[in-house]
Design goal:
Elements lengths: L1 H16 L4 E17 L4 E17 L2 E7 L4 H16 L16 E6 L5 H18 L3 E19 L4 E19 L2 E2 L3 E7 L12 H9 L10 E8 L1 H16 L1 H6 L19 E3 L22 E5 L2 E2 L6 H7 L11 E3 L6 H6 L3 E4 L2 E3 L8 E7 L1 E5 L2 E6 L2 E6 H4 L3 E10 L4 E13 L2
Parallel strand pairs: 4-6, 9-14
Antiparallel strand pairs: 1-2, 1-5, 2-3, 5-6, 6-7, 6-8, 9-21, 10-11, 10-13, 11-12, 14-17, 15-16, 16-19, 17-18, 19-21, 20-21
Helix pairs in contact: 1-2
């Protein structure tokens, strides 16, 4: 860490000597210890070292940015020179700014020191659990790793943050097979800072594996109808990201196309929806502690009881639009649970689908979207009846968030998000 601080200080001093009064740099060193296991069961263990330096400066309101993977003295000097040169061709903009000094700090999160022998044992145990509990699963790739990151952030206002973090990642790609038949591919993942819990029990991994085994044999959905779609946490996260960035994010607020641009402190969704960006929540592994502009991260509500409480804006867009910046820049979404179990939600649905994942393009600025539902199940008369082949669903994101049927009591923590299951009515489902 001391070497990183030394190099960051050299970077800021070089910038100061060039007469530039607004700038920041981030210097980091990452060590990844990783097991790769392929479909043949072959193990590869490797250690990856990754150094990085990013320099951002504002030269008379003109922005220059340079990133590189070395931070020796010569490389730092060249990086600053290149950032100044990049700024000279940019247009001036007074909205660019950096964070003022508040309270400098040193952050430590997660598990910086890996237990490699135990990690290997957990990987072997995981493979054994998959084989024993889910014999139809055909593993394409498994990545199990520990990442440690040391970082130093400094800006020309005197802000200085150091961060030390470490976490374990479990990621796998797989399908299910029986004879010549196979399911669609699926991916599962989770973050953790402990090796005390079997990997198969993290996040939605066990449920995902079980569902994929049931998706080898599928039937098409008949006809086109308006029904209910149940989104498990992973699919719900995709839905929420699309909606929130489309209606609250930098791009649409800056260009004025967001349909929520005038809805701050007004009802925008069903009153049962509360969503926060909460990287400091204890269930989030190694959540953001400060953002790239040098502001300390704080948890904040985006939507509270259906009311829009904040846009998700950088300080630049906030300055451009005379609005408040978001209190962090993370995607650590937490959605408040409901009062209904998942099984009760299913029992109350006449006709609809349970979505495993969605594949499709970005929604229109007004929220209209269409996507292909994959790894999904048909629901009829309160029961999950069968796996379905790829099926188109469409609707409007803003309307969907106002057509909540139910939100589950159960929530899933995967280390990055904390989300329930949610069912929405009046979605168009297009079968054959």
């Amino acid at each position: 860490m001391e070497n990183l601080k030394k190099q960051a200080s050299k970077c800021m001093e070089s910038i100061k000597q060039k007469g530039i009064d607004k700038a920041y740099c981030y210097v980091s060193s990452r060590v990844i210890n990783e097991f790769n296991i392929d479909s043949t069961g072959y193990y590869l263990f490797r250690t990856v070292f990754d150094n990085s330096l990013s320099v951002t400066l504002y030269n008379k309101g003109k922005k220059g940015v340079v990133s590189l993977n070395r931070f020796d003295d010569e490389s730092i000097s060249k990086a600053v020179d290149n950032a100044v040169a990049a700024s000279e061709s940019a247009s001036p903009d007074d909205a660019w700014d950096i964070a003022p000094v508040s309270r400098n700090d040193a952050f430590v999160s997660g598990c910086p020191e890996p237990d490699i022998p135990r990690l290997f044992d957990c990987a072997v145990e995981f493979l054994g659990d998959i084989s024993a509990r889910h014999p139809k699963i055909a593993l394409e790739q498994m990545i199990i790793k520990h990442s440690r990151t040391d970082g130093v952030y400094m800006n020309s206002n005197g802000v200085e943050f150091t961060s030390l973090s470490g976490s374990y990642t479990v990621y796998l790609d797989y399908s299910a097979q029986e004879g010549e038949k196979s399911s669609s591919f699926f991916s599962s993942w989770a973050l953790t800072d402990s090796l005390d819990k079997p990997f198969i029990e993290l996040g939605c991994i066990e449920e995902d594996l079980s569902n994929v085994e049931k998706q080898i044999f599928t039937r098409p959905v008949e006809g086109k109808f308006t029904g209910t779609v149940v989104f498990p946490p992973q699919a719900l996260n995709s839905l929420l990201e699309s909606a929130l960035y489309n209606f609250c994010g930098n791009t649409t607020i800056l260009d004025g196309t967001s349909i929520w641009k005038d809805k701050l402190d007004k009802q925008v969704t069903d009153s049962r929806i509360t969503i926060s960006a909460s990287p400091l929540d204890e269930r989030i592994i190694c959540g953001e502690r400060f953002n790239s502009e040098g502001f300390r991260s704080e948890n904040y509500d985006i939507i509270k009881d259906g009311v829009l409480k904040s846009f998700m804006l950088s300080s630049y867009v906030a300055n451009k639009t005379c609005r408040e910046r978001a209190r962090n820049s993370s995607d650590s979404f937490i959605m408040a649970p409901g009062d209904t179990t998942v099984s009760e939600i299913i029992k109350g649905i006449d006709r609809g689908i349970l979505v495993g994942r969605l594949s499709g393009g970005e929604p229109a600025t007004n929220g209209d979207f269409s996507a292909v539902a994959k790894n999904s199940f048909y629901i009829e008369n309160g029961k999950i009846t069968n796996a379905i082949s790829e099926t188109m669903i469409s609707g409007n994101l803003a309307e969907i968030l106002n057509n909540v049927r139910a939100i589950s009591k159960e929530v899933i923590c995967d280390g990055s998000t904390v989300l329930p299951y949610a069912a929405f009515d009046n979605i168009t489902i297009s079968g054959k």
